[in-house]
Specification:
The chain is α/β, with parallel strands linked by helices. The strands form two sheets. Strands 2-1-5-6-4-3 form a six-stranded mixed sheet. β7 and β8 form a beta hairpin. α4 packs across α5, α5 packs antiparallel against α6 and α11 packs antiparallel against α12. It is globular.
Length: about 325
């Protein structure tokens, strides 16, 4: 059976209470980077783990992010400042929220008087990322048209961590009015994907992991229409296909990268996304009914442009050309 999407949770926790913001995403692969240090631009990531390497740090304005391994969460929380411990729920409650998923981000907002006072700011925003690397699969897959497609995934522990860091960065940029205060769940997931790809480009010097994320999202949508909430491909396609690597690398600040134009991160309208997702399932997913040749014909060329780079990973040139003729004509 194809792999079903694993959910991630993103929690926003004020000092007095906390609430859970569930965000469903496909978390894949279990490769924890143990080589070069991870420097996240304008974001402090500090590992509290005896088994994982410390991460190089920078600053994201007044935001600090700590990374804990789920297997030693109680010990990790105990090493956090007292103000963090008071604002966060207990380790058992966090682990219940994490469940069997691979990563979770927690946003903590403290009053400046609670510690780490910041000049000219009355509050300080912090973030905690939980990683459960043992829960991260090593491939993405989907069953389509009688074939089982499986895509091995690399560096997914890093990509999951960067994706979660992206959620914290995005929330901070919303606070700073760089991004709109109201973002839909798909918009948040798309921005987090862009952040993870932007980070991977700066870290590795190429867009290979960006294309991996692209294929991962397409396979997830083929696998289940429910994964449309994380289908960032309509935004990733022009970014990866048309934007040169040099432009990804020129932006040393993520706010500068996405701030050039809202078109860089805005998804199509809800109806358009639903039509594309429905056509994907009807044409390529495990659809029990007949394949309708003219179903949503006005979306077929658009969808082919979005799916074909992923289909090309599993089909020969001749098979891809034949499928294109059948699908569009």
């Amino acid at each position: 059976m194809p792999y079903r999407q694993s959910p991630m949770h993103h929690l926003v926790m004020p000092a007095s209470a906390f609430c859970v913001r569930r965000s469903w995403t496909l978390v894949l692969a279990a490769v924890l980077m143990s080589g070069p240090s991870l420097a996240v631009n304008h974001l402090t990531l500090t590992h509290h783990s005896s088994q994982t390497p410390s991460l190089a740090s920078a600053t994201f304005l007044e935001q600090q992010v700590r990374v804990c391994q789920a297997g030693e969460l109680a010990e990790c929380l105990a090493r956090l400042p007292a103000q963090w411990q008071q604002a966060l729920p207990s380790a058992p409650r966090l682990l219940v929220s994490l469940g069997q998923h691979g990563a979770m981000s927690v946003r903590v907002t403290l009053g400046a008087e609670a510690g780490d006072a910041l000049p000219n700011h009355s509050v300080a925003s912090y973030g905690l990322i939980l990683l459960a690397t043992a829960n991260l699969p090593t491939y993405a897959s989907a069953y389509s048209r009688g074939q089982y497609w499986q895509l091995p995934l690399a560096q997914q522990a890093l990509m999951s961590q960067w994706h979660e860091a992206g959620h914290l960065v995005i929330a901070h940029l919303q606070d700073q009015a760089v991004l709109p205060s109201q973002l839909s769940k798909p918009q948040q997931e798309t921005l987090a994907d862009i952040y993870s790809i932007w980070r991977s480009a700066h870290h590795f010097g190429d867009l290979a992991l960006g294309w991996q994320q692209y294929h991962r999202r397409n396979l997830a949508l083929i696998d289940s229409v429910d994964n449309v909430s994380h289908w960032s491909v309509p935004v990733l396609q022009p970014l990866l296909a048309q934007l040169p690597l040099e432009q990804w690398l020129q932006a040393q600040d993520f706010a500068d990268f996405i701030g050039v134009s809202p078109l860089r991160w805005r998804l199509p309208k809800h109806r358009e996304l639903n039509e594309l997702a429905s056509l994907t399932q009807q044409s390529f997913g495990e659809h029990s009914g007949p394949k309708l040749a003219r179903y949503l014909y006005w979306r077929r060329e658009q969808l082919w442009q979005l799916l074909s780079p992923t289909l090309a990973q599993f089909l020969t040139v001749d098979e891809l050309a034949q499928l294109q003729q059948e699908f569009i004509d």
